[in-house]
Amino acid sequence: MYTRRGLMALSPALLTLTAGCSLLGGDDTHQEESERSQAEEGNQTGEENQTEEDIQYTEDSNTDEYVLSLLQLPDGFSPLSEEVILRSELEEGEPNYERFERNDLLRQHSNQFVEDTEVEVPAFVSSTVYVTETQSSAENLKRQQIDAFVGDTEQEQTLDGEHEIPTTFVESETDDEALVRAYLGRNQNAVFELLVTGELDQSIEDLYIQMLV
Q1: What is the pLDDT of residues 117-127, one digit of tens each?
Q2: Of the candidates 144, 199, 138, which has an alpha carbon nearest to the alpha carbon of residue 166?
C-alpha cells in the first residue's frame, strides 16, 4: 500500500496555478488612461474576431475521452481520484473560485492514479484537461503550468508536429528527489496535461498521445 507521506510528496500542488502580474505605471495620468483605453479596445476587437470555430470547448464539453482511464495505464495502478470542477457551480469564497476567475477557467477535469506498491513514494499519474474562456487564456494557463517546474534538472522542449497539438515536455525533481515529468499541450481554448512521478513500464509519451486520440 502507498503511504500518506508518499501521497503528500506527489500532491498535484506541484502544479498549483499562479497568476502574477506586474503593473508598470508612469507619472502621466492621461497617458495611462489612453494606454488602458487602447488595451481594452484591442481586447474587445480580439474577442469580436474570435469565431465559434476558435472556441471548440465549453464548460459543458464532455472531456471524458481526454483524461486517461485505468485501462490505459500499466498493470499495478489503482484509481486515486477523479474530479470535474465547473465554474458555474462555484461560489465566491470556495477554494477554487478565485483560481477559476483569475485564469478564466470554465472547466477542469482530472483523473489521478497511484501505483500499488510498498515503496514510500509510489509512481503517480495525473491526467487533466482545462477549458478556458479564450485561446489566449488557455495559452497563459499552459505557460503557468510549465513555469511551475523550477530547478536545475528542468528540461523544456517543444514538440511540434509529433502530436496532434503542439506540446511541451518538462522534466524536474521534487524536494524528495522524485522524478517529475509532464506533457502540456493546447488546442484552441483547452489545455491538456499529463503529469507523472516515478517510473512506469509504459512510455509516458504514448500515454499522452492516448489523451489526444
Answers
A1: 877 778 999 99
A2: 138
